[in-house]
Every structure is written in structure tokens, then in C-alpha cells.
Amino acid sequence: MTSSNRMIGVDVGGTFTDIFVLDEATGTAEVAKVPTTRPDQSGGFLSGINSRVDDLSTVSVVVHGTTAGTNALLERKGARIGVITTMGLRDVLEMRRRDRPRTWGLRGNFTPVVDRALRLEVPERTLADGTVRTPVDLDAVRTAAQQLIDEGCLACAILFANSYANGENERAAVSAVREMWPNAHVSASSEILPEIREFERFSTTALNAYLQPEVSGYLARLETALKEGGFAGEFMIVQSNGGVMDVDTAAKLPVRTALSGPAAGVIAAGYIAEAAGFPDVITGDMGGTSFDVSLIAKGTSMLSPQTSIDFGMVVRSPMIEITTIGAGGGSIAWVDKGGLLNIGPESAGSTPGPVAYGQGNTRPTVTDANVVLGRIDPDNPIGGKLDRLDVEAAKAAILEHVGRPLGMDALQAAEAILRVANSRMAGALRLVSIERGFDPERFAFMPFGGGGALHSGAMLAEVGLARAIVPRYPGVTSAMGCVIADMRQDFVQTINSVLAGIDLQSLTGFMQSHVDSGLATLDAARTHFERRDTEFTLDMAYLGQTHTVPVTLPVTVENGVVTPPTEAQIADAFDAAYRATYGRLLENGTRRVINLRSAITGRRPRFDLATLAPKGGSTEQAFRGTRQVHFDGIWHETSLYDRLALPVGAEIAGPAILEQPDTTVLIEPGLVGKVDAYGNTLIERASA
Fold it and tell me: Locate the Hydantoinase/oxoprolinase N-terminal domain: which residues (predicted)?
């Protein structure tokens, strides 16, 4: 490939870094998978790109889905930071919502990301209606900032009471601190989340500061290395909401990357499934470390307004709703003191990896169980340093750590490991479907990630799903999602007013400022957009209620100018949304507007998935022989196929294994796999 309009998606996972290279001119794609490098992930990022692209000047866009922020939060490896806050509020981050890690018992510990000695108070006070009661003492602010600098803080968060209602005091303090702070890492709550509720605003802003030095440094290293390699295109980062942002925005707002990598996979899965004719899909991203599940209904991903990354670490920013469990291919199987078999949460990751990789690990993983049962080809390993996977070492580890403690032989123990792993994965699928009122029979399961397609048959059986759709390149679906994600900016502003007599001019002014800011970001991007969409939603409730309903406003934007809504339009939209949620309205209830949420989206061109479909070929040519594979206590003679060589329309009856460089697809006995027009494999129950 030598054209200059190549797009590259890079997804860095816990075990592997995935690369998806799309040539827009020819519609051809290439994929690569290299081990993730720790602690600095930029090494794997660059070696993955270099394995497929010789000349970076031929690349127009690089889009990156990163777990750098997520890992820094989960592992508590963010920067040493300080907080400057209103007198009396230094402990908001520690008190949270007066919740605790474990519901029962009198003990519970929580360490905030900022030590109490580094949370400093200054005289200032803004009331909830926006009135400034006490102007900010800027001398006290400067003294506090100098103290934090002297204490070795790399970033600072400024968290003032009610700054969402009036940011005057906070803006003055931020300006004073930025003048003297030695770097650009100063986060202000009124800039990051001008929304009511102190703890959520404080937590989101503090976590943003906590991530800034780590994430901005990481992105700067990547950008520098890309430019040194001759890259002159656009470098963008996937956000947790499924959109992308430019690298400068990501460096300022790293908290928006908290679930960046998994979100990219959900975006790609939704696009692939809808093109294939299945708008209702449950995605299952199985990597080396975790299994991430998300539900897409009628082609739309579920967005959650806030997420707890870990206990007490709340991020209030729109994120694709993803349920994560520690059941990846590298998750370690172990027997507890009570004689129960457990999977994870500890993972062998990419280093040392599963026992079969021969890199020093001696404890069995889910991948080792698949290897011992013949489901993974030992002669063509996806990762590791061996030319051939060490099946005997995997078998010995399973026998020692699982078989003997449970009185089983190695094969029984391997099946038990998969049974427990499948049960945990099925539980995650039920959580996002059945437990939220969705009938799984309506949904297809889309497994991706390196290990997901080995477990699709088990998910159909355990959850009652209609079918599975295995995408053409399941191992690099998240990297593909980077390439097709839209550019999206989310904004929020607390209004906190009853609807009757609401200041429509002020409301429209906020909407217009969001549109202006969002469109300016899109204009600054060097990406072509097919169209630009704006969406406005109000969080509304009746006076006295805590929980709100999202109310979509019927507002048009022409030539960048917002048409104001009327009070009656807002009232009608609220009534429709409230009745749809609760089945009735409250007579004589006073309608209240809490927050305005705006989303400005630049729709990037989609590439035609049919270009990934196989051209010609035959089932006979794709046949690679047979291998003994263990199912339900019996060895089965199982047909092996080169999956990428199977033609459109091919039907493969189970038991069969379809192999490709980035994953293995397992078609269990009683199931049949069909190749559709896009190169996906649809796995369904064989008709009697």
C-alpha cells in the first residue's frame, strides 16, 4: 500500500496492542497484533504501526483507543496532586456519598487520590443561586499553590462550592494559579463539569488532575515519535462516549479517556452488526485481562451519565455503558481454601502470559484450558516467544493447581475452568440484558477480542441468545472502531430552575455557546465530516424528586445558530418522556429543569464493510485437515479451516475450528457457521 489516505486505528489492551490499517482508496485493510509493552505502552504502539507501515507520511489519520487512563486509575498510579478548595470542603472527596466499599459490617476503608495534607482551603463562597457572598482571597490561593508546588505536586485541582452556578471566584483563582504553576496541569471544576452536586464535580475534576501528567506525557511521547517517523496527519484519541477528540483536548481532559479502548470496540461492533442486519446486539470483548460486555439496542449504544471506575472514584462524563469482569484469556484459575474453583481477577497479562507461552508463568489460565482441550492450535500461537505452544506444561499446571485439589484429571480440570469462565461471562451478559428488561432471544452476541470467539457457543447455550456474529477481524475490532468512530463533544450546564417562567434567553445562550465551542473543535480538525449533528437533552423532574428523566429537545440548528425552544415545547417533551418512563404524570406537579446536556457530533465517513469480504475461494481450498478437540468429556474429530479463505455463503457444520492470525473461532457440535456478504461468520443452532 503506497497511497496517502491510509487511516490507522490502534487499540492498546492489557495483553496485546492491535493495529487496523485501512486504505480508503482501495478499501483494503491490514491487521497486526503485537504484545503490549509495560510500563510505557508507547513501545508496543509504535512497533505495531511499524510492522504494517514503512512510511508514516502516507498516513492521514491515526486514532488511538487507550487504556492508559483506566490503568492509572485502577492501579492508583496517577500523579501526586493537590487540591485548593472552599473553606470547609476539603473532605468532600473523602466523605463521598457516605457509602462504603462493603455494604455489611462496620469497617470500610477508602483512600482518596489526594492526601488530606494536600487538600488546602481558602476563603471564598458562592451561593447556590450564583450570588458571591465572599470574594476569593487570591493571596491565600497563591500561598496554597506555592505550598503544593513545594510539596512536589505535579498537578492541581481547584474545587469551589457552587462554581457551576457562577464561576467568577473559581476563574479568578485558576488564573492566579496558572500564572505560577510550573506546567499546564491545572484543572478547574467549572471548566470540566459545570454541573450541580459537589462530590461528583469534585471527584471528576480531581481524577482529571490525577491523570493529566501521566496521560498528557504518554500522548506527547506518541505524537513526537509519530512526527519523527514522518507522520504529518491528524492524531486523535477515542473518548469514553464512543467519539474521538484531538490530542490537545485529550491532554487537557484525560478523564474522558477512562474507558477509551472498550468504547471503540462497541462502536465497531454496532456498525458491523447493523450492516449485517442485526441492530440488536450484545458485545463481548474478551482480551487477555478482562471480558467487557455492552448492549446495543436498535443500533444505539447505551450511554451512562456517570461511572465508578473503582469504589469512590466517580467520573461524571457520558460513557458507553460497559460491564467488565476479570475473565480474560490470561485470567488465572485457582482453588480457594473452601475447595471452590475461581477464575481471575488476577491475570497473567502479556508478560509472562499463559503457561503455554513459556515465559515463566506456572499458574494455569483460561487460554491454557483452551490449549489443553485442543481448541487453540499449538503450532500457530497468537502471542508469546515460542514457535509452538507448550501443551504439556499447560496440562501439568492445570493438574497441579486445579486437578489434584479437586480430584480431577487434567482434561476434567480444563473443562471445569472453561465452565466457570463461561458461567461468569454468561452472568455479565444476563446483567446487561435480562436484568434490564431486554429479551436475549432478540439479540445477537458479537464476540471479539482475541479470545471471545472461542466462547460464543457457550454463550448461546447459557443465555439463550439467537445467534452469534463473529466479525471478519474479531481480534482487532476495537482498533477498527478507532477508524470509524465519529468526533463528538459533550457539554453540560446546570440550569436548576422551575419550567414555568424559565429564562429561555439564558437557556438558549448556553446551547449556543455549546454549539459554538463544539463546531469550532470540528472546524479545527483536519478530518472530513459527512455531516454535523447537534442534540440537546434536559435532565428534568418534578419539584421534590431526586431522580431525573432525560428529555430530548426538538431544537434545530441552522448555519450554527440555535432556534430557541418554547416553554410549551419543553413541557410537552417532558410529559412524553416522563409518561414513557413511569406510565403516568403527576397532576399539579411543578416541572423542574436541572441540567442542559449538549452533544455536537461530526459524522466521519464510514468505509464499506463489504470491501473486507473474501473474494472468490472455496470451502475445499480453505480446508486445513482435522484435529482432535475435546467437547463435553469426549474427543471429537474436528474440521479445521483457514477462516479468511472461506468464500461468502460457505456453511460449516460443527464441530469445526476456523483459524486466522488474530483469533480462533470455535463452532461447537450442534451449531453451524455461515459466512455473510461482509465476511462475518454467523453462528446459529443447526436446524433439526
Answer: 8-180
